[in-house]
Amino acid sequence: MRKFLTVASSFAIVLTLSGCSDNEVGDVSLGMFTTKDIKLNTLIDPVVPGVTCHIASIEADLSLADPSDSSISCRQTGEITPEMIAKIDKSKSGEVVFTKSKSIFFKTMKIRRIYDPQSETLMYLSYSTKTTTGSYKHSLSTVPLWGTKAYISPTINNN
Asked: How far apart are alpha carbons 144 and 54 in whole angstroms?
């Protein structure tokens, strides 16, 4: 019996710690009869720390797979400099700035930063790497550089 209690308490501690995250800022239960919650996380862009993103995703405790749905909202929360923008990947596919496992079956949620040079905007795309009901779930948020030190004012031609 003592061994059972030790195993049960170890399991409870692991479950509690697995739900903890240093970037989790909110946790909303979806009801008494479900094991699913909406978790709210904060992500500060590691290369452009003047951008903070908030990600909402459904997580299923005691389940083998978490749902793929997520949403993202990013805002300028600090200074954005030309030096920061010079360091980012400017390819059309951008770069992954955050990854989180959503299933033991290789499903992952990723956040990718993509730069749009024409509008001078940072785009943050949240997406799942596995299809759900025939669709890849995704969400997009943008942070314009207008009004920051990184914004390059268009030249005005007065001919």
From this structure: 17
